[in-house]
Amino acid sequence: MGWMRKDLLTMRELEAGEIVLLVDTAASLQEIATREIKKVPALRGKTVVNLFYEASTRTRTSFEIAGKWLSADVVNFSASGSSTSKGESFIDTAKNIGAMSPDVVVVRHSSAGAAELLARALPCSIVNAGDGAHEHPTQALLDLLTIREKKGHFEGLHVAIVGDIAHSRVARSNIHGMRKLGMTVTVAGPPTLIPPFVQELGAKVSYRLEDAIGDVDVIMMLRLQQERMTAGLIPSLREYAHYWGLTLDKLARHARPDVLIMHPGPVNRGIELAPEVADGPYSVILDQVSRGVAVRMGVLLLLAGRKGGDGG
Amino acid sequence: MSLLLRGGRVIDPANNLDTVQDVLLADGKIERLGRNLAAPADAEVVDAKGKIVCPGFIDMHVHLREPGDEYKETVATGTRAAAAGGFTAVCCMANTNPVNDNGAVTDYILAKARVEGVVRVYPIGAVTRGLRGEELAELAELAESGCVAFSDDGRCVMNAGLYRRAMEYTLPFGAPLISHAEDTTLSRGASMNEGVVSTETGIPGQPAAAEDVMVARDILLAELTGAHVHIAHVSTVGAVRLVRDAKARGVRVTAEVTPHHLVLTEDAVRTWDSNTKMAPPLRTKRDVEALIEALADGTVDCIATDHAPHALSEKEGEFDRAAFGVVGLETAVAVLLDRLVRPGLLSLATLIARWSRDPARLLNLPAGTLAAGAPADVTILDPDAETTVDPSRFHSRSRNTPFGGWTLRGGPWMTVVGGKVVRPRASR
């Protein structure tokens, strides 16, 4: 099937076939990273704007590299020092950027729904690079690409997502994507970090790390934002690390020997992940990062190449 | 000067009346009701055949925004919106700038209303100075200046000790305290109901318990003090249960519900339209069903719009940063006629009672009846009018409605205040 959508906003709205198309496209572009000259002319003459309202290093850089390897002109617009600090509204900023005729706008924003707002306001393609606690589809896609490479398939796999599910767009996008591909998802964390009715999204729930990681193919550890403590959601980092931190010892005692350890980054070493786990043989964290560039190339290619003839 | 409303179906719940007859208004009062009344020489005669003639509708929960936020609404535009929507009186909340926490501000609002208002305006005074929840406003002066109730609406008086004292202090004034029931420690940071939609969208949610906890507290304080507490905009099945139980025990508690909480659920938030964002938030189907039942059986005493005008710039952006609230004056009657009365969820007579007799009673207003001698405030409905809600044609200065584009059957046709027509018949 071909790609028909103007935007990539959520995993929830995609069909399984569309997800596989995105993953396949990314897979086919991976070898560009191994070339001596990492550039193909696919998006020559196309403009990609990275519109980042939230601090981000890896996602923004990943999109920037992806765009450049495809020969697009990539412009970074970050909120600090720009018109937003002069009181311009999100919609006004968006319309101004839209008036400069970009082909793709990649948006990261702390408000859920911001990418959708932008997609309605602008005629160009929008990629959601994270909107509040809502969705982060390219992260889910790079997770899926990594999993398929390591496990060879999706159907029947079981994934545990561990940590602050309530505030995680990565968890939401992965739950939607994985469920559509026939995978089982268990979310785990203290009840204060599990959102209500998450079962209705198709996830199972566990309140004990040891139970959650027992019989899974993949463990995805989420970053714990330190402000969750001041909000009264957890008593202390020390207690969180003790009960919810993944250590070699817990892995050896409870997890399967072929389990994959994933993390969307940046890692709080010693809190959700012991350093030996983050750097250990189970970990595919850096594979995720390199797959991220391929996924974003694939997304830009499918979106920007949608109408033009030079997108192949 | 008199006005003869000829041949309408007169529904006056205060007098158990539902019959086709004429209504004669003279000198600002209801003169008499009867069949084939002779028109006095000076009378303007209105052919009300096929229309429904009711006591004037009262919206006891409106934000007119004046003084201070005239870019959102004024007494002039808000009362025009009220007249267009079929209301003959509105009660305006105290969260203006400056806050209506002293007699001078009340005087200002009433002076504006006399000069520019087209329907009756009854101010509601603040409970606490500056709505800060720290010390009592000058409640006696507010009552004497004409405030018909007290409320920090928009904010909840979180200090139970202070709220208890407010209830006691206002006992002699015969004016209720109106509670915006929201425990802010449970609702902090939230933009919608906590539930399956907040989990899916990632929009921070507040649980129904944020409202229920405060309704329970206020009922207990009303029981302690003997005060009359009115719960504004109830939205949860739990709040309904608490009010029902309290009424059965004889506690002086009353409640209102908004049109949007009666016809919309949290599912509407999936559109990301910030006109689905208000406090309290849209809840679940179960809550809506409980609210309709409570309105029908009288647990909820009246309907009020919580008309909350905001400028486009305050509503068009990110959902979690958008202002809370929606306008309601110009859509309320049509929305409920179409969505509650037409499908048989609520009788027409009950709808009329909850908008006229009942708010008048609980606020001790000289209104809500078509008895001879009562003020000549009359709302006339056209049960067959078909309209499509077009916010660009609102009389309100603001456009923030969740009902834009809805096609509705039945609506206000004419509004009469003090014997004078303030809404010309729809030109169709």
Task: Explain the overall architecture.
- Helix content of chain A is 38%, strand content 14%.
- Chain A is α/β, with parallel strands linked by helices.
- Chain A has 2 domains: 16-135 and 292-304, Rossmann fold (3-Layer(aba) Sandwich); 137-288, Aspartate/ornithine carbamoyltransferase (Rossmann fold), CATH 3.40.50.1370.
- In chain A, the strands form 2 sheets. A 5-stranded parallel beta sheet of chain A has the order 7-6-5-8-9. In chain A, strands 2-1-3-4 form a 4-stranded parallel beta sheet, with helices on both faces.
- In chain A, helix 4 (114-121) links the parallel strand 3 and strand 4 (125-131).
- Chain A is globular.
- The two termini of chain A are 14 Å apart.
- Chain B is of the alpha/beta class and 428 residues long.
- In chain B, 30% of the residues lie in helices and 22% in strands.
- Chain B is built from 14 helices and 17 strands.
- In chain B, strands 1, 2, 3, 4, 5, 15, 16 and 17 form an 8-stranded mixed beta sheet that branches. A 4-stranded parallel beta sheet of chain B has the order 9-12-13-14.
- In chain B, strand 7, helix 2 (103-116) and strand 8 (120-123) form a beta-alpha-beta unit.
- In chain B, helix 2 (103-116) runs parallel beside helix 3 and helix 4 (160-169) crosses helix 7 (209-225).
- Chain B is globular.
- The relative contact order of chain B is 0.17.
- The mean pLDDT of chain B is 97.
- The A-B interface holds A 12, 89-91, 109, 111-114, 116-117, 131-135, 167, 169, 172, 195-198, 200-201 and B 194-196, 198-205, 272, 313, 316-321.
